[in-house]
Amino acid sequence: MGTILTIQGMTRFFGGLAAVMDLSFKVESGEILSLIGPNGAGKTTVFNLITGTLLPTQGKVLFQDHEITGSRPHETTSFGIARTFQTTSLFYDETVIDNLIVSYRCRTRMGLWDALFQTGRSRKDERRCRQKAEEILEFIGLQERAWELARNIPQESQKRLALGLALATEPKLMLLDEPTGGLTEEENVSMMALIQKVRASGITVLLIEHKMKIVMNISDRIVVLNYGQKIAEGLPQEVGRNSAVIEAYLGVGYGEN
Amino acid sequence: MSRIGRQWLILTILVIVVIIPQVVTNKYYMNILIMSGIWSIVALSLNLILGYTGQVNLAHGAFFGIGAYASALLMLKLKMGFWLALPFAAVIAGFFGFLIGLPALRTRGSYFAIGTLCFNIIVTLIVDRWEGLTEGARGLMGIPGPSPIPLPWGGEITFNTMAAQYYLVLCFLLLTIFVLRRIMQSLVGRTFRAIRGNEELAEAMGIHAMRTKILSFTVSCFFAGIGGVLYASYIGFLSPEITDYHVSFDSLIYIMIGGVGTIVGPIIGTLLIVTIPETLHIAAEFRLLLYGLILIVMIIYLPRGIVGWAKVLMSRKRKQEVSWEQS
Amino acid sequence: MVLFFQQLVNGIMLGAAYSLVALGLTLIYGILHIPNFAHGHKYMWAAFTSLFLVVNFHTNYWVSLVIAMVVLGFVGAGVERLVYRPLRNAPHVNSFIAAIGLLLFLESLSLIFWGADFRRFPTLYDKPIHIFGVAITLQRLLVIIAAALFIILLQVFIKRTWLGATIEAVAQNPEGAQLVGISIDRISSLTFGIGTSLAAAAASLIAPIFLVYPTMGAMPNLKAFVVIIIGGMGSIPGAVIGGLMLGLMEALGGGYISTDYKDLFAFGALVTFLTLRPTGLFGKGVR
Question: Where in chain A is the domain with CATH 3.40.50.300?
Fold first, then answer.
């Protein structure tokens, strides 16, 4: 199926500090690739560089063989890259379903004129948004909470919703930043199942995760970062045995969670 | 409140509103009502960029003034008729909104507020000093009212009486409400709300934040311009003060008290603020004192305004309907 | 040539005045991240307080300055407690709106108390002295000297005293500061008090040069904001340099280009900065 995302020679400086240094790796279509590394290794920075929230000092990002380096976040989303944020990001004052409806907006075409004159296009777009929202609602299992305000639903539901928002943009690649943050053992399991469901539906997943059990279980491949540089890459078992990786994580490791 | 109940309420209010000029003949009160109507249009338009899209715009008075001056100058110097000058002036106001929005909307939060305030001051300064164009501090006088509209069956509608002026303003107010409501209930309106809720997330959802904000700002300025045109023709006289940032502050107060992010809120806020102090004959300085105090109290304890909180209370009692069917 | 130097000196004085007003503002913003939009109106109240003392009680000018600083310091701390503290966890724009309410309140209170008349502040220092052919009143010279003094004092206070270090700690990391037992509430009130005192000092120094009236605070307020946006919000050197730049721009622009539109320079500059470099000269970069 081919490579869906290529990072080439990615470097980003903040003042004198290199948050990411000469990073290169590829994401194959249909796989779940985990990006791991100690705190401060630069993982979220990589996500920001891919989606365009940050500009790289050097390096390229290629999505489906097209260069997208320097595109703005709304552009990368329209290309087909969706993301979640480390600190759950939702439209807190809107209901769950309203959150999902507006997330499909980027795939609709209607404008001010359509809104004012209630053209056929506006009716079609609004219907499609509604339908999509209901589909995703079912996919992430939040049907019962459809009318609740996003700020009032429990932590786990919020994480699901954040994933649902990203799904609603009809991505080909999803960047998930610590989707199990703050979740319990059981909740981890159901989140993992959801991620696998996402992959099964044909979406490639790039995952940042701290919990090794999850990483080892769910990933097809792993890339390990430390101090902004890649120190290992490969299958979970290989990476787990890699001495550089073990050193980087000294103390943190397998079976921790 | 049920759907049917609501429709009856709206109908009743409409009937009352339409009958008022037949019942109230006191010029003083009619004047208050007409001014309330004009300020409601201004407040509603500010609500679009501030209440719905979440950007604290303090330049609103400038656009109101631009609309007013544009129509006055078109009518006085180019001898344009009212009905042609109105859309032209509104478009001019909207256009300036677009021009000013382009640089201004690259900033956010307090920076945006300060930046727009400075734009407002620049506009007032220019209107005040550019005497060749605007007659400066002397002001523009003798601005004509709306020209009569000929009726197909003979005769015409004239706008010489207060009642006629009242109906004119009412029509535009209803038009404004209708347009804004259509916008807010559509996907376009949802996009505005997304920007207000979480601009970074909205961008991550593929929404072009800048384009959305500029659209909201431009439409907001367009309607502010309409308010300006109505004001100019009603009062007949303009001076640079009406572009002043105090107009911006006033509009802000109306919507903060009434309720940001609702259609009814700004109207109620305007009505309360414009009518009550007038009827109680409170002196100007004390009015400002009260507004300041009320604004502080409202933003701390009732940031959604009167209507906003009434809605929150109501929706707690029953399961909330889809937001886009309300408002 | 003399005209140039004259305008230069005027510009420096103006710049010193703006810097002094902006200093308090940037201090408050640096700690509390609140753009205290009512700053100019507290400035106005300080001027009236000094005026009141000097005219009605024949207090010594310098004594009235100190009293104004103390009084307004308390007012500032009070405002922080009553108005801004409840809004600490709300979006920043709410504080801005509250500041607008405060501004209206202070302005109308002043109108009620003092009336709308423009008043003159009597001073002993209005005789012009001549240096190198440039005329400058002692009062204006005092403004420059006092501004420099306050800037130095403030820097020393922040960098060398324990209290100053505490304030910096809160500015950089509020949670961390709390963990080591620093009371955010007290520091916030204190900072607001100090910032407002600085504005009060500025007011008492500048008032004798211009007139005193209830709406006198509006322009300095906005210009102080222009200064800190140009210089970078929260940066003391930024406030100084920004203030000087603005003062010079106005004096030279007003003298050589047009007096009518001289206020425009300030706002035009602001608009330019906001568009091109919103974080100011000393702020951090974007993206």
Answer: 3-80+171-248
Q: For residue A107, what is the nearest residue in chain B, using CA coordinates?
A: B206
Q: Bridge partners of A3?
A: A28
Instruction: Identify which of C171, C141, C145 has the alpha carbon closest to the alpha carbon of residue C236.
Output: C171
Query: Does some domain include residue B326?
Result: no
Question: Is B309 domain-assigned?
Answer: no
What's the fold here for domain A3-80+171-248?
Rossmann fold (3.40.50)
Reported as a single tens digit per residue, the pLDDT across C46-65 is 988 888 888 888 778 888 88
Amino acid at A241: R
pLDDT, tens digit (0-9, with 9 covering 90-100), for B105-125: 988 887 888 889 989 988 998
And the tokens for C30?
């640096």
| CB contacts, 8 Å: A49 with chain C | none
Residues A210, A204: Cα–Cα separation, whole Å: 19
C-alpha dist (Å) from residue A27 to A44, B95, B181: 16, 46, 46
pLDDT of residue A250: 63
Tell whether C263 lies on the interface with B, counting CB pairs under 8 A.
yes
Q: Say if CB B119 and CB B62 are below 8 A apart.
A: yes
CA–CA separation, B83 and B149 (whole Å) = 9
Taking only the tens of pLDDT, chain A with its 257 residues reads 689 999 999 999 988 888 899 999 999 999 999 999 888 888 999 999 999 999 999 999 999 989 999 899 999 999 999 999 999 999 998 999 999 999 999 999 888 988 999 888 999 999 999 999 999 999 999 999 999 999 999 999 999 999 999 999 999 999 999 999 889 989 999 999 999 999 999 999 999 998 888 898 999 999 999 888 888 899 998 888 887 787 777 655 554 44
Rounded to a whole number, what is the distance in Å from the CA of C287 to chain A's nearest CA? 5
pLDDT at residue C281 in the model: 62
CA distance C115 to C130: 37
Of A163, A165, A167, the closest CA to residue A177 belongs to A163
**Separation CA C217–CA C42 (nearest Å):** 8
Question: How many domains does chain B fold into?
Answer: 1
The shortest C-alpha distance from B196 to chain A (Å) reads: 9
DSSP string, B133-202: HH-GGG-B-----PPPEEPTTSSEE---SHHHHHHHHHHHHHHHHHHHHHHHHSHHHHHHHHHHH-HHHH
- Give the count of beta carbons closer than 10 Å to the beta carbon of residue C169: 17
Tokens 């206070």 label which residue?
Answer: C157
Torsion of CA C75, C80, C82, C84, to 10 degrees: 140
Rg (CA), chain A: 19
SS3 A111: coil
- B193's tokens: 């709300």
Could you tell me if residue B257 is inside a domain?
no
- Dihedral angle, C-alpha A126, A131, A136, A142, nearest 10 °: 100
Per the domain annotation, does B78 fall within a domain? Answer: yes
DSSP string over C55-89: HHH---HHHHHHHHHHHHHHHHHHHIIIIIGGGTT
Token pair for residue C175?
Answer: 């949670």
Domain limits for position B38: 29-248
Domains of chain C, by residue range, sit at 21-216
> φ, ψ for residue C238 (rounded to 5)?
-60, -40
Residue A184, classed as helix, strand or coil, is: coil
Chain C residues touching A54 at Cβ < 8 A: 287
Instruction: Tell whether A54 lies on the interface with C, counting CB pairs under 8 A.
Output: yes
